[in-house]
From TrEMBL:
Species this protein is from: Clostridioides difficile (Peptoclostridium difficile)
The keyword Transferase is annotated on this UniProt entry: no
Role of this protein: May play the central regulatory role in sporulation. It may be an element of the effector pathway responsible for the activation of sporulation genes in response to nutritional stress. Spo0A may act in concert with spo0H (a sigma factor) to control the expression of some genes that are critical to the sporulation process.
Protein name: Stage 0 sporulation protein A homolog
SMART domains in alphabetical order: REC (SM00448)
Entry-annotated residues carrying 4-aspartylphosphate: D52
UniProt KW keywords: DNA-binding, Phosphoprotein, Transcription, Transcription regulation, Two-component regulatory system
Source species taxonomy: Bacteria, Bacillati, Bacillota, Clostridia, Peptostreptococcales
GO biological process, one term: regulation of DNA-templated transcription
GO molecular function: phosphorelay response regulator activity; transcription cis-regulatory region binding
GO cellular component terms attached to this protein's record: cytosol; protein-DNA complex
Length: 143
């Protein structure tokens, strides 16, 4: 089961996102501040982070930069900031996607599913030179 960290300071939206993602079978940790999010990242491995930009204690951009500097966790921004310069900055920081509020929850859930399916497929492959190897439980033998 995939673990998702939701970092959103709006408690109603945080609970709504968490409820909908739990309903889809994901394990959700929800946080309301950058500080508590970093603590959770240090304590647990996440497959994906959904991150607001306007957090009370630190910008989501700053938090993303800090996460990307120390961890290899995919990030999706979910924010009210709809300026083109903010979107570009989000992608330049390495975000998988930049979704602006308001948004359609069903489309959002499908995006999450697609991203996680893509990441799972990507994680089961190794590239050596020009060859791509797919690892499965039956075919993997340690050297």
């Amino acid at each position: 089961m995939e673990k998702i960290l939701v970092v959103e300071d709006d408690s109603i939206l945080n609970k709504t996102l968490s409820y909908n993602l739990i309903e889809d079978g994901y394990i959700i940790t929800s946080k309301f501040t950058a500080k508590s999010a970093l603590k959770s990242i240090f304590e647990c491995e996440f497959d994906l982070i959904i991150l607001d930009i306007n957090l009370p204690d630190k910008s989501g951009f700053e938090l993303c930069n800090e996460i990307k500097g120390n961890y290899n966790i995919p990030i999706i921004f979910l924010t009210a900031n709809d300026m083109e310069c903010d979107m570009i900055k989000g992608y330049e920081l390495g975000a998988l996607d930049y979704i602006t509020k308001p948004f359609n929850i069903n489309i959002f859930k499908q995006k999450i599913k697609a991203f996680l399916n893509h990441l799972t497929i990507k994680q089961n492959k190794i590239t050596i030179g020009m060859d791509i190897l797919k690892l499965t439980f039956l075919s993997y033998l340690p050297i």
